[in-house]
Design a protein that fits this description.
It contains 14 helices and 15 strands. With 413 residues, it is of the alpha/beta class. The longest helix has 18 residues.
Length: 413
Amino acid sequence: MRAKVLTRQFGAAAQQVADAGRELPERLLQELQLAVSEGSKPKAEAIFSQIRNQIPSYHNVEVISADQWDQQEPEPINWLVEGLLERETIAAIIAPSKTKKTFFSLQLAVHMAYGERFLNWNIPTPLRVLFVQMELPAAGCHRRYRKVRDRFLESHPHAERMGDGLSFINGRGWKFDIEAIRAEILRQGSDVVFVDPLYMTHDGVENAAEDVKPILAAFSRLAEETEVTIVYIHHDAKGVVGVRDTRDRGAGSNVIGRHYDTGIFLGPHENGDNLLVLDFLLREGTQEPVTVQWDYPIFTPSLLPAVSRAAVKGAGRTPRPGNAKSDETLLAEILPAMGDRLFGSDELVQFIQDTTQVAKARALDLKTAIGQRPDYARAKKPTPGQRGGGRELYGKRAVLKQHGFNFCYDGKP
């Protein structure tokens, strides 16, 4: 353990506490000095944890009036990859197992570092890229990178050395530390950070929203505070993905699908294993699906139509034609079919799917919309001696009231 490094880290953390308007107990400095003299890394880490607990988890909220915005033009979109990746946003690359997600990500990272066109998309300028990989041995990542870089140089023989345009953190066996990533971003002046894979950045259960939300929130803060674009690599749920709604892609909690600003999805093509469909889900603009060909160790564009294997062969899930309809059109089908029935939460989701043929994610959104309509409500029936009541039900407000459901979440009678 190096005392100078620990002391410098302590000083930086103490300054954060001071900036937050707090006072740092003197005892922490004494305990740190003792930990350094003993060479005890666990003790030192425990002290840094105590320091971080002194820093408020909130920050000042900036309020901007509409009048102020009326007096100025909005900032133009700062595209890092034109039409696809914007600065200070979150992106996800999602694909099934063994579909070369890491090779795809490395290829994108190399093109970003050189500022050269990637597949069908222009990259306006060279970028500083930090690639954090948690899964491969360092030597394995090194070999993959060199294969991708060498293939790039074959088609770009006049490209100069990228220097420190692309850097790697090999974190296999390392507990993900977002503060260490932040420090490296600030040191290098990074524009883009790749994190591969997402599931190794957090503890807990991947399917549990409460376990996933903290790291997603941390990524959002990191992007906002450092003005980087964060690209995390995530795996698909098991099963056929070809006709799955893009919002349902990705394993684990569905909060992931609501988090990113750009979703990039790889899936099997109808014409074979070396062809993949590249699909997108964007907050800003649209991109049509395209076909790409795997030509080890890179992907190249293909002129074949982007048709998923499962969509042609009828394998996997049934297509969801209802997803193309507007919410109001779907609600016009759902509400009359509900009649005066009362539905449990899961029961209503299934009813919506059966009635409209939409994906589960869309059904969840429609369930929320029903509970917010003037004549409908989400309620619980009061249970004597218990606060909050029992089973949650959805239905017409008048029918709920007739059955004694007078505890409505919106506070209305």
